[in-house]
């Protein structure tokens, strides 16, 4: 019996989550994460990929943390000298976050150990062709739709998030509707 598209999509999603869970458990060995947690590393890694300091809201779009949790984590990382806050030249009320030299060094150190473990976990299960296909499929799943940044909110032509227009209440007629 052939599965419906809905069932196939849900089975594929469940397989993806299960694979993620199994690999993440394997990658959570204490010796890799003695200096920073996996979540802290995610923040350091994300910042290491940026050419310029980021606003907290931009960083929040790229990591799996709530805004309050990310804010607290940035405070802790700043207190440890791994990230710095600089005034946002475009918005005096805002700040931008970047890695310090110590943060960049810590990211490279932990990242080196982590990448060896990732390679071992993935290459022990998949062939080169399967890894290529997995990368292609995950890239396709992660791709933004037109006008959508990674977070799913609308963006302008430069990819910056924009505000959604306020929703019009249902059953309220405008002058345009009346004509």
UniProtKB/TrEMBL annotation:
Positions of the HTH marR-type domain: 1-143
List where this protein forms a coiled coil.
none
Which segment of the chain is annotated as a signal peptide? Answer: none
The protein's matches in InterPro entries, at most eight in alphabetical order, are given as:
HTH_MarR-typ, MarR/SlyA-like, Tscrpt_reg_MarR-type_CS, WH-like_DNA-bd_sf, WH_DNA-bd_sf
Query: Molecular function terms in GO for this entry?
Result: DNA binding; DNA-binding transcription factor activity
Q: Which UniProt keywords apply?
A: DNA-binding, Transcription, Transcription regulation
Q: What is this protein called?
A: HTH marR-type domain-containing protein
Q: Which organism is it from?
A: Brooklawnia propionicigenes
